[in-house]
Amino acid sequence: MNGASANIEEHRTILEIQAKIDAGEAVVFTAEEISSRIRAGEEIGLEDVDVVTTATRGIMSGTYAVFSFKVSEPDSFIKASEVFLNGVPAVVGPCPNERLGVLDIIVLGTAHSVSDPRYGGGHLFRDMVEGKIIRVDVTTNEGKCFSVETCLSEIPFARLYATRHAFKNYRAFVNPGKDPIDTIFHALPFEGEFREMTFCGCGELNPIENDPGLETIGIGTRVLINGAEGFVTGQGTRSVPDNPNLTGFADLHDMVPEYMGGFVTSGGPEIINTWAVPIPVLSRSMLENILKLDSQIPLKLVDLAGRIPLCDITYGDVWDNADLRVKYDPGKCINCKVCPVAEACPMGAVSKGENGAEHNPELCFNCGLCISRCRGEAFRANLGTVRCEAGGCLRDIKVTLRQSDRARAVKAAQELKEQLLTGRFRLTEPVEKISWRE
């Protein structure tokens, strides 16, 4: 690739690029592939790429699901007043469905079970997508209580909605104080005195990092949310021009369990989601952003308690040379009587077996917390150390937990690429650009 063609158009349209895909002439790269080529010294011009598939996977609290399904015969009760799914509370309504025996309910992704402090909306949604039977407890406005069992295939309407997903850029966190803090940004009480650091964000893979001007991401843009085809509906809460995020929706029936789930923090259960977004490369100015590497993408290190900025680093500081996947060597397990990894794992991906720890890679989020907890060093991955001048001192701060799973973001972007090239996924023009309220 030499980027030297004089005939390439300066501006292209999404329809023109989709036509090239249909003709089998388009060049599609994942964000990881194009970044690898840049690191290898290649020069990439507008004529060398038509679409870049991007993705991000991480904790995305702004999530809820809407369900509508039958729980009894008509006229068996007037209206429901309280509903719990596997102990997770639902908001009843907005439709009362008087005397129909049908529930319309909303479940927040961050809702916590009343019976299990380590189970929340994110766990519930994944269990449902996996086809598991769930228990529905209903209290009617007449005071009658009853329970039924159901599963996702018996729920005709089940849709997941995003109120704030896929932030262009998030934060890295430290606790400068002396006392540990319970927080959603750590699976354990966050140790003080700069002893550890956590962070969120997939850097150069992130959809909006590749299209910060939202030139191709707009209202009506087709995307994959947890592997299911969905659509962008606009900007999310706390979205600002310098750091936008997105709202959207997709059908739970079509989602892939591997891309979603619950993540237990010291502040309670949180929810994981995965977005994969195609970025048609329309102009040279768009390409400039696509070619940026992690080391060119800022990441602000902040005080956990007050979100006070302490130091400016980059995503290169946390992802360059880091291992994306955590590896487990059962031969090194010393079979602790009480496994500290199993107790700490925010995904429940590690359990205590008769012969030592048992690791479930399908559940594993690659957060890396197990590395600092395992006494036998059976879990390993390079999470990195960040050098930063904070609190008047130059400090080397260890990354102990990642709240973004870049390994599966890479996989999601690759799957989107394959769907584009085979015609299973088609690019869509936004119905309208995303606008900003002052």
TrEMBL record:
Pfam families: HcyBio. It comes from the Archaea. The keyword Transmembrane does not apply. GO terms for molecular function: 4 iron, 4 sulfur cluster binding; metal ion binding. Gene3D superfamilies: 3.30.70.20. NCBIfam families: methan_mark_16. PANTHER family: 4FE-4S FERREDOXIN-TYPE DOMAIN-CONTAINING PROTEIN, ADENYLYLSULFATE REDUCTASE, BETA SUBUNIT. This is 4Fe-4S ferredoxin. It comes from Methanosarcina mazei.
